[in-house]
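Predict fold of Tripartite tricarboxylate transporter substrate binding protein; 321 aa.
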Amino acid sequence: MSLKRRTALLAGLGALALLQAPAALAQDYPARPIELVVPYPAGGGTDAVARAFADSLRKHLPQSVVVANKTGAGGAIGLTEVMAARPDGYKVGVGTVEMTMLPHLGTARFTAQDFVPIALLNAEPSAITVHANAPWRTVEDFLAHAKAYPDKVRVGNSGVGAIWHLAAEQLGRKSGVSFMHVPYAGANPAINDLMGGHIEAVTVSPAEVAQHVAGGKLRLLAVMADQRVKRFPEVPTLKEKGIDVSISTWRGIVAPKRTPQPVVDTLRAASQKAANEAEFRDALAKLDLTHAYADAPAFQKVIERDNAFFKQLMGELGIAK
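Predicted 3D structure, encoded as tokens:
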């Protein structure tokens, strides 16, 4: 055999090996522990969902699932690490609604298209919450007061461009009200200031105020959802009141783009079983969090919907980059 033909043959065999390598690796997947990156600190809602899910997922995979908190930049650091990881299924992440927001703020290297959805696990709507001693018994009363005093009603949020800030902005736009938006380092400091009487309202999720509402310290006026929340069936939706606002945060499992399809399929199958484990559902219920499982195709539609929505909203608010 000539040197030229031998070189060509070796090159062809090398190319074939490269094509077969991902399939071979996927066939043995997972052969070692999987790292689940949480882009927010330990102890928060996203971390709690991740750890409860990891416990259930271990039952349906031959390898362990290790939770790693990679925090900072509003979730951008952890999500960037997942985006840049080798697409082999050994580093996946908890994707949150911020995947569809941070890119439009210009604070992230990634876009929503840089991730492969595996499973949606949880979703929580925004809600309008006031102090229990506030004079407003209904959302109509609250908005009427805000209209009478433009830019005077202080609404706490977790920073400009964060999900609950945008929820309050959209509420104002749809109801013809102008609020004074007060940023905090997170939902808890805002809630503490609401209980202390330093602000008039917050637009965080019902789960984040549930204990204080149950304890008689705070009052829920309405939720920004298509349906009422099971935990508070007496609280109306804004849509019931004629205000077309539905904004939620969500949490799910995502993998880096170009992850081999057999690996994605393995993760999807295991995630479906784990998400429907009674222990996982119970863990969410104890935290007043909503179980909202959806497989990859439906999860992808949620991502695409919110990516388009927040791009437009941030542009209209003048905060998109």
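Confidence is low (pLDDT under 50) at residues 15-19.
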